[in-house]
């Protein structure tokens, strides 16, 4: 079976979309882990972070649930 150029382009766009989605999820997970690690270090050192303000969770830069291409 011969794959057309449009099929290949669609496949590449889908792969790029999933790569970017995984990257965004990985960055959010990294932020959460950094926050958890700093809490752990504060508890282990005896300092309290109970009164420090919590940073807002990261907001998505683009709508990852939207269409791949604006039509």
From TrEMBL:
It comes from the Eukaryota. Residues 45-71 are annotated as: Disordered. Belongs to the TOM1 family. This is Uncharacterized protein. It comes from Hibiscus sabdariffa.
């Amino acid at each position: 079976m011969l794959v057309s150029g449009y099929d290949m382009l669609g496949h590449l766009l889908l792969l790029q979309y999933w790569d970017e989605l995984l990257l965004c999820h990985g960055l959010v997970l990294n932020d959460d882990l950094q926050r958890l690690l700093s809490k752990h270090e504060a508890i282990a050192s005896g300092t309290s972070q109970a009164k420090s303000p919590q940073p807002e969770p990261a907001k998505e830069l683009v709508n990852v649930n939207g269409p791949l291409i604006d039509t």
